[in-house]
Specification:
The protein has 15 helices and twelve strands. The protein has 372 residues and is of the alpha+beta class. The chain folds into three domains: 3-178, Beta-Lactamase (2-Layer Sandwich); 186-293, 2-Layer Sandwich (Beta-Lactamase), CATH 3.30.450; 299-369, Arc Repressor Mutant, subunit A (Orthogonal Bundle), CATH 1.10.10.10. α1 (3-14) runs antiparallel to α2, α1 runs parallel beside α7 (148-185) and α3 (61-70) runs antiparallel to α6. The chain is rod-shaped and about 105 Å long. The N and C termini lie far apart (71 Å). The model has no long low-confidence stretch (mean pLDDT 84).
């Protein structure tokens, strides 16, 4: 066996992007290694029991189209299927007399025009006779049957073919599931962002794209997420690296304010590294963020909602809203025209009614559970 040929074929096989592979360069290498002029990938399933060519080199478009109507008259697979399932590799030696083959319609209308006299099949995937995938290597009568070094080369290649095909099927399934997932995200009315380990925006659903266009948030020149209000941005830059780095991090809710300091929405960050990698085939994604906007002019309805939901007084609801917007207690006192001690009294009442103990805990609870 030619070890150099074997290494070249295996390197080319694993060098393909198996998520969306282009088999053509590899098939051309196979053709060269086996002195073949027609190499195909053929699928046998319930819909195509006699085989469907999914990829091929060396066949004209007309012959490719013709194969679908002639494959039911293909006698080779019926004779060689049992050996193929048992051995993994079968060539045409001894399968049927040449005179019998030349008398078939399949030979007369397909093989003869393609210049095919001899063939060899390698079984890449099998789950019974009704679910097979083959690599077939074909050449003319003059080149003759495959010799022992060529059969040995095929044996060395076969396990790698099986691995690569299985990986392609798995990654192809993940890619299909990923497309379905993103299509579902586009149906959501809330914005959804996917961020990588550097905090860069890698994906935004249709709602999130509109929110970005409306300047609810933005992105830096390096692609990282950026918030409008300085206090929000500082908290984001402190917190996001921890979320991106750890799979065990808890979800984190952050208020988003406009340039004038009014509450514009909330954004909830959830670690998603393992799920993104195993379920969506997005191994670079670390965080999924859910963005919810607050309609302009909803300040009064927000205060009313806080009063109805938590039993706050009007003054307490106003303080709660200001804190949700990122104000400190001193800023809220100045904004409300009262003393800091008055605001502390309201804050203690908010703690009692929400059963919280710290201001940060209170704000997180309000952002998570209030009707915003």
């Amino acid at each position: 066996m030619d070890r150099r040929r074997s290494t070249q074929l295996i390197d080319a096989l694993y060098g393909m992007d198996l998520r969306a592979p282009d088999w053509t360069p590899f098939l051309h290498l196979v053709a060269s290694a086996f002195r073949s002029h027609v190499v195909t990938v053929q699928i046998h399933d319930r819909a195509h029991p006699h085989g469907q060519l999914t990829m091929a080199v060396g066949l004209s478009p007309r012959l490719l189209a013709l194969h679908a109507s002639l494959c039911c008259d293909h006698p080779w697979f019926e004779r060689g299927a049992s050996r193929l399932l048992l051995e993994g590799i079968v060539d045409d030696r001894g399968l049927m007399p040449e005179s019998e083959l030349r008398a078939t319609r399949y030979y007369a209308e397909f093989m003869q025009e393609a210049g095919i006299g001899h063939g060899m099949a390698m079984l890449m995937h099998a789950q019974g006779r009704e679910d097979l995938a083959l690599l077939t290597v074909n050449r003319d009568w003059e080149t003759g049957h495959y010799n022992e070094p060529e059969i040995e080369l095929a044996r060395s290649l076969l396990p790698h073919l099986c691995n690569a095909y299985a990986l392609q099927q798995r990654l192809g399934w993940l890619h299909h599931e990923s497309r379905n997932f993103y299509a579902a995200l586009d149906q959501l009315t809330d914005g959804v962002l996917l961020l990588n380990a550097r905090g860069q925006l890698k994906y935004g659903n249709a709602t999130a794209q509109q929110m970005e266009a409306d300047r609810l948030f933005s992105r830096r020149t390096d692609g990282r997420l950026c918030l409008n209000w300085p206090a929000d941005e500082q908290l984001l830059q402190r917190t996001l690296p921890q979320l991106c780095a750890s799979q065990a991090s808890r979800p984190f809710v952050l208020p988003m304010h406009g340039h004038d300091g009014t509450l514009a929405g909330t954004i909830k960050f959830c670690p998603a590294g393992m799920v993104a990698g195993t379920q969506w085939s997005e191994f670079d994604i670390r965080v999924i963020a859910f963005v919810k906007s607050v309609a302009p002019g909803n300040a009064v309805s927000l205060r009313s909602g806080l009063q109805d939901q938590w039993g706050f007084t009007t003054a307490e609801a106003q303080l709660a809203q200001w804190m949700m917007q990122g104000m400190s207690l001193a800023q809220a006192a100045e904004r409300g025209g009262v003393t800091i001690n008055t605001m502390r009294t309201h804050l203690r009442s908010l703690f009692d009614k929400t059963q919280t103990r710290r201001q940060a805990e209170l704000v997180r609870l309000l952002l998570r559970l209030s009707h915003t």
